[in-house]
């Protein structure tokens, strides 16, 4: 048996369980010792029973999708991994529909049918367990020197996918064509990151690295631990408490790209209203459907059309994005050695996982240490 943190939706319960030890049953599989798992809003929503689905044959769902693991055993067809290797697993697994072009092209983050599965979220057990078995093709190798920070890979993939999408879309402008292959495609452009949680801060690091003049716009007044990180990476922190959206726009002159990771739709829409001509706005967080708010849609549409703007949503991330996130973590570590470790506020033993899953402590990123 292995130890795992599970949610029982029927019984409205979250607890440490003894789970049968998974075994390698296919030559393409890998047995993993889980080292660490990050906790995020998705886990807390599952624990609040807002969503999340156990596997069909189980009354509970093992939580956790932001994992770092060590290979302990490989199936006989696995040649790319050896025991001792560090790996980060992908979250989403393809649907079975032969007509789903996204899943058939191994881009299940774009799945058309919605009948994909996600480890720790929808239909598959997650990684808050001492031992897990996974298919080798969903695992990405991590250099040993990233052992302390690679648990941040999955949240960084959200920004990686957003940036790739933005660059591909901005290739519509003939004078920017090919920007996706440029080392600093953001040179001369201004990006605003909305929100200073882990997804926002990792996004800001990525945008700075891509050459954008980067601003992080968030609620809390500076100075605080998040504004300190923003300043350390050469970006600028502005608080919504002391700087209105109008003042933000005035200060920047124009906003070319907005990366929303705020979970506060009214403020996001206000910023959208101030997006520059040919600008792009990327939504990554949901909003609370129980708190609808008013938008002057006629005015919004007029802005979007007359300024050639693009608004996109993005969720999850594909295989290439995991690899680029791991590469960027190495770059961030070299460029700002203090910053990634400072994103991790606290590590909790499995026995205390419940307290960090049920209420959001202060700080930035909270991690459950499994081994
Ligand atoms: Zn997450
Ligand atoms: Zn699909």
UniProtKB/TrEMBL annotation:
Protein name stated in the entry = Alcohol dehydrogenase
Keyword annotations of the record: Metal-binding, Oxidoreductase, Zinc
Entry GO MF terms: metal ion binding; oxidoreductase activity
**Cofactor requirement:** Zn(2+)
Pfam families named in the record? ADH_N, Glu_dehyd_C
Q: Where is the Alcohol dehydrogenase-like N-terminal domain?
A: 27-143
* Highest taxon of source: Bacteria
Organism for this UniProt entry: Dictyobacter vulcani
């Amino acid at each position: 048996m292995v130890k795992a943190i599970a949610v029982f939706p029927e019984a409205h319960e979250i607890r440490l369980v003894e789970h049968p030890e998974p075994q390698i049953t296919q030559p393409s599989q890998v047995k993993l010792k889980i080292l660490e798992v990050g906790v995020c809003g998705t886990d807390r929503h599952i624990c609040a029973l807002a969503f999340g689905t156990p596997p069909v044959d189980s009354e509970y769902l093992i939580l956790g999708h932001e994992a770092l693991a060590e290979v302990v055993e490989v199936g006989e067809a696995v040649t790319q991994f050896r025991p001792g290797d560090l790996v980060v697993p992908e979250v989403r697994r393809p649907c079975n529909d032969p007509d789903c072009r996204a899943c058939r092209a191994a881009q299940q983050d774009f799945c058309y049918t919605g009948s994909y599965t996600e480890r720790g979220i929808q239909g598959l057990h997650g990684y808050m367990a001492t031992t897990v078995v996974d298919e080798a093709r969903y695992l990405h190798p991590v250099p040993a020197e990233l052992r302390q920070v690679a648990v941040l890979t999955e949240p960084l993939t959200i920004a990686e996918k957003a940036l790739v999408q933005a660059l591909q879309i901005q290739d519509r402008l003939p004078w920017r064509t090919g920007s996706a292959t440029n080392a600093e495609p953001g040179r001369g452009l201004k990006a605003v990151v909305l929100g200073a949680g882990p997804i926002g801060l990792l996004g800001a690091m990525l945008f700075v690295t891509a050459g954008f003049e980067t601003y992080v716009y968030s609620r809390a007044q500076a100075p605080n631990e998040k504004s300190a990180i923003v300043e350390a990476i050469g970006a600028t922190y502005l608080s919504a408490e002391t700087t209105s959206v109008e003042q933000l726009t005035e200060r920047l002159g124009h906003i070319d790209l907005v990366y929303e990771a705020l979970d506060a739709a009214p403020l996001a829409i206000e910023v959208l209203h101030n997006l520059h001509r040919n600008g792009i706005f990327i939504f990554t967080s949901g909003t609370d459907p129980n708190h609808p708010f008013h938008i002057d849609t006629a005015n919004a549409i007029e802005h979007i059309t007359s300024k050639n703007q693009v608004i996109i949503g993005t969720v999850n991330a594909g295989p290439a994005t995991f690899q680029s996130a791991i590469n960027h973590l190495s770059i961030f570590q070299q460029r700002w050695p203090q910053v990634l470790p400072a994103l991790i506020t606290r590590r909790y033993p499995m026995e205390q996982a419940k307290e960090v899953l049920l209420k959001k402590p202060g700080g930035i990123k909270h991690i459950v240490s499994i081994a």
